[in-house]
Automatic annotation (TrEMBL):
Chain intervals for the UniProt region annotation (Disordered): 268-295
SUPFAM superfamilies: SET domain
Coiled coil start-end: none
Catalytic reaction annotation: L-lysyl-[protein] + 3 S-adenosyl-L-methionine = N(6),N(6),N(6)-trimethyl-L-lysyl-[protein] + 3 S-adenosyl-L-homocysteine + 3 H(+); L-lysyl(36)-[histone H3] + 3 S-adenosyl-L-methionine = N(6),N(6),N(6)-trimethyl-L-lysyl(36)-[histone H3] + 3 S-adenosyl-L-homocysteine + 3 H(+); L-lysyl(20)-[histone H4] + 3 S-adenosyl-L-methionine = N(6),N(6),N(6)-trimethyl-L-lysyl(20)-[histone H4] + 3 S-adenosyl-L-homocysteine + 3 H(+)
Stated name of the protein: Protein-lysine N-trimethyltransferase SMYD5
Key words of the record: Cytoplasm, Metal-binding, Methyltransferase, S-adenosyl-L-methionine, Transferase, Zinc, Zinc-finger
Enzyme class, UniProt record, top EC level: transferase
Annotated GO CC locations: cytoplasm
């Protein structure tokens, strides 16, 4: 791990790194932490921004702290349900396809970090809710210089033609990066933020999360005028998913965040057919083909 200053390194050491430090065995495949990281790399766990090391760091924070109750009550502020009883929704990670993975991760996390002060996190039920916690609250920390550059590009005043060329270039860039190094996420890690995680979702949000200082300091910025007393909402869906049909958006929100979205956009689209965006696109293509045949 690289730190920006001695102060940063010392504070990490005093808060959690004493537990997480692998020292000389950092590349030893038999080290319990390496085994855990390796297993994680080979799994595709939803959502992509969550990280097993976030769980490791939570455990380490408790382990190292002499005020364990304070830390635990901080974590208790986050929502960590795996089911929404009222609306009869269960988290995606309770699905069959993830059960086996979750059990493997649980035993590896136990092996690497078991601590009796948080033994409730190591039971199958407790481990699931820990996953639900980082899944529903984990915020990707967007500090990659590429994402800053893309963001700055968006702000440029360009002619339509220049805009199209630039957008096509950026799209291609992401495709090429993905070919080389797998899915590239505009984030260098994930974190938990008590204040931001208390914000509700809207498919037409009036605020967004930014990382203006290229570090983990999170800032919420209004994307439109907000009246006094109006609720501040952010989007839990990334930009791509936000463009999708009402049905697709609601499905993603139900599976990952356990609620039925009733935002103004969803309400205005209430009469839309229940099709996924893919189906919609296919239909559009068929329509186009039909029209070509007709003409
Ligand atoms: Zn270290
Ligand atoms: Zn909505």
């Amino acid at each position: 791990v690289l730190y920006c200053s001695d102060g940063c390194r010392d504070s990490a050491w005093n808060l959690y790194h004493r537990v997480l430090c692998q020292g000389a065995s950092v590349a030893d495949p038999n080290h319990p932490t390496e085994k855990l990281k390796d297993a994680w790399r080979n799994m595709h766990y939803p959502p992509e921004t969550s990280s097993i090391m976030l769980i490791a760091r939570m455990i380490a924070l408790v382990k190292q702290s002499d005020k364990k109750d304070q830390i635990l009550s901080k974590f208790a502020e986050f929502c960590k349900s795996t089911v929404n009883e009222e609306e009869h929704i269960a988290h995606k990670l309770l699905g069959k396809e993830f059960q086996e993975q979750l059990e493997i991760l649980r035993s590896l996390v136990c092996e690497a970090f078991y601590d009796e002060h948080v033994q409730q996190w190591f039971t199958p039920e407790g481990f699931r809710s820990l996953f639900a916690l980082i899944g529903t609250n984990g915020q990707g920390v967007g500090t990659s210089s590429l994402s800053v550059w893309v963001h700055n590009c968006d702000a440029l005043e360009l002619s339509d033609e220049e805009r199209q060329t630039l957008d096509a270039f950026i799209d291609q860039l992401y495709v090429d990066i993905e070919k080389e190094s797998g899915t590239f996420l505009n984030c260098e890690g994930s974190g938990l933020y008590t204040f931001q995680s208390a914000c509700n979702h809207s498919c037409q949000p009036n605020a967004e999360v930014t990382f203006p200082h290229n570090n983990f300091t999170l800032q919420m910025v209004a994307v439109q005028d907000i009246k006094a007393g109006e609720e501040i909402c952010i989007s839990y869906l990334d930009e791509c998913d936000r463009e999708r049909s009402r049905y697709s958006r609601q499905k993603a929100l139900r599976e990952n965040y356990l609620f039925n979205c009733n935002c103004s956009l969803c309400q205005s689209q209430i009469d839309d057919p229940d099709v996924t965006s893919e189906e919609e696109e296919e239909e559009e293509e068929e329509d186009e083909e039909q029209m070509q045949e007709d003409s």
